[in-house]
Every structure is written in structure tokens, then in C-alpha cells.
Amino acid sequence: MFQRIGIIAKHADAAVRKALAATLAVLKTRHIDFVFDENCAAVLTDANAHVVAEDKVAEERDLVIAIGGDGTLLRAARIAFPANVAVLGVNLGRLGFLTDLTPEQVPDGLNAILDGNYTSEDRCVLQTAIVRDGDIVSRADGLNDIVIQKWNTARLIAFDTYVDGRFVHSQRSDGMIVSTPTGSTAYSLSGGGPILHPQLGAIVLVPICPHSLTNRPIVLADTATIEIIIGTEYANESRVTCDGEAMPEILPRDNIRITRHAKTIRLIHPAGHDHFANLRAKLHWGYAPC
Q1: Does the pTM exceed 0.85?
Q2: Are residues 131 and 256 in the same domain?
Q3: Average pLDDT, stretch 225-233?
Q4: Residue of 75, 137, 205, 254 with fewest CB within 10 Å of its CB?
Q5: Contact 259, 127 (CB under 8 A)
């Protein structure tokens, strides 16, 4: 069971205070060892709290609680998954596909989870490497997506795509989204990509505003190795982001190599969690248009 918990919160959001206070009340009542990050400390003073740097929140913990929206949970996941630490989300955001509990649900919901009444699932993570002249110059991971996009320019960027060493296409567009099933309800969905069930072993390639109506999203097995060769003529006109975090500058002819990471991230949900009910609620399926 979860006895050592780390807490990470959304930056500079007054709504964090209420959710954090409710969370700490549960943990203190149960005498659970906890630490929290500087964002938590900024909104709620607690003389008994152990405040740590954000990148230390998952150290020697068995659960990380993310208080915020999906962006906050993605930050928590990036810290937690290398250490095989589970993540639970408290939703202060708008859609919140990944964060389950509302602040009002924390007292009962968190107690139930700490009693062992929860479900969990492993979500795949993508890893990417920028390869230049045969050498890896940068690495990063993404739970949602890896995005190759134009940067500091209004012009289209050009790139070639290969899957498992086989040429797929040359493309001129605003970029490419390489998404996990988890990310298929994020930027990928906005770009016209399909919604993938989170347990599906797949990766989806979604072009961003391609200069061809025939360039459509492609769903691949999650065993695929994806390589995107940058064809843009000038440096600093394209960039790679992993869950919204920018990697270092990429140069013409750089190879962006993307594969599934060997590790997964374990998400904790309240008992009875229903993926399709979540989709109905967040996307307003079945509601009358007026």
C-alpha cells in the first residue's frame, strides 16, 4: 500500500490551496510520510512539511500525487516513471483526461485509494533521440507525444519519415505529432488524429497542416522505430518537444529517432474508473447540440 507519498502542484494557481489542504488532511490523519514541491510550499505553509525540489519528489516514494491539470500530471510522470513510482491526479484543469479526482472528491476518494480500493494501468512512454552525424546529441521522453514542429518561422518545414528503416514519405507541413494512445486525446486529437484506447499497443503519426490533402494520420505498432530526417535548410526553424518541453536546437539533416520506452508509467484511478465514461464527460458525447 502507499505509505510514502510525494506531491507536485501546478505553478501559481490559487485553486491548489484547497486541494492541497484536503490532501494533507487525509495523509496526516493516516500518519503517512509525505513530501511536497516548492509550488505546494508557495500556497500552503506547513511547519511539518518536508519541501523538496520538484525533481526529488519521487525519490524513495511509492506514489506521487499531481495537483493541477494534465500538464501537471505529465510533469509528475516525467519524474516518477524512471523510478517506477505510481502517479495519481487531482484535477484543477479544464479537460483533465489523466487527472481523476476533483478537490471535492479528495477526502473520500483518496481515503478509498489508500485503503486499496483503486484500479491501476500501465501507460506506454515514448523516447526520442536527436542523432547528428551518427552521434546522439540529446534524449528525452514523452507520455503524451513527441512533436516535430516549425520554430521561429512562418514557413513550412520539410522532412522525410521512415518506419523500421522503410521510407514512408517526404512532407512539407507545420510538423508531425508522434503520439501514444494516452496522447491521442491531446494535441493529436486537435490535429485530426484518432482516439486510441490507452491499452492499445500503438503509436500514431499525425501531420500538422500538411501541404497535401492526402497526408493523413497513420497508426503503427508500438514496436516500430520512427525516424524523421529534417530537411529544412536553416538551423532553428524546427524544434522537437516532448510533452510540450522543448529539446535543444535541431539542425538540417538531424535524425529524430523515436521508439517506445522499455519502462511504462503506472497511473492510479479510483475504483470503477471507466475510460469511455471519461470520454463522454470530457468530449460531451451524447449531449443535445442546443
Answers
A1: yes
A2: yes
A3: 93
A4: 137
A5: yes
Place of cell 547528428: 132
Structural domain including 31 reads 4-116
C-alpha pair distances (Å), 163 with each of 55, 80, 146, 252, 266: 34, 29, 15, 20, 28
- pLDDT tens readout for residues 238-269: 999 999 999 999 999 999 999 999 999 999 99
Residue-level pLDDT at 153: 85
State yes or no: pLDDT of 288 exceeds 70.
no
Same-domain pairing of 82 and 63: yes
Residue 95 sits in the same domain as residue 191? no
Kindly state whether residues 93 and 163 are assigned to the same domain.
Answer: no
Instruction: State the pairing for strand pair 255-270/118-132.
Output: antiparallel
CATH classification of the domain holding 133: 2.60.200.30
Q: Name the active-site residue from 37, 70, 141, 243.
A: 70
Same domain, 185 and 102: no
Give me the residue label for grid cell 535524425: 255
State the Cα–Cα distance between residues 5 and 110, nearest whole angstrom.
12
Q: What is the pLDDT of residue 96?
A: 83
Q: How much is the pLDDT for 25?
A: 94
* Residues 179 and 193: beta-carbon distance below 8 Å: yes
Same domain, 15 and 132: no
Instruction: Provide the domain count of the chain.
Output: 2
pLDDT at 101 over 90: yes
Assess whether 67 and 172 both reside in one domain.
Answer: no
Share the mean pLDDT of the chain: 93
Question: Any idea which residue has 505498432 for its cell?
Answer: 221
Distance CA 154, CA 12 (A): 32
CA distance 247 to 241: 6
Q: Is 70 a catalytic residue?
A: yes
d(CA 64, CA 57): 7
- Cell numbers of 97, please? 483526461
Q: Is residue 137 part of a domain?
A: yes
C-alpha distances in Å from residue 253, one per residue of 20, 127, 246, 260: 47, 20, 19, 23
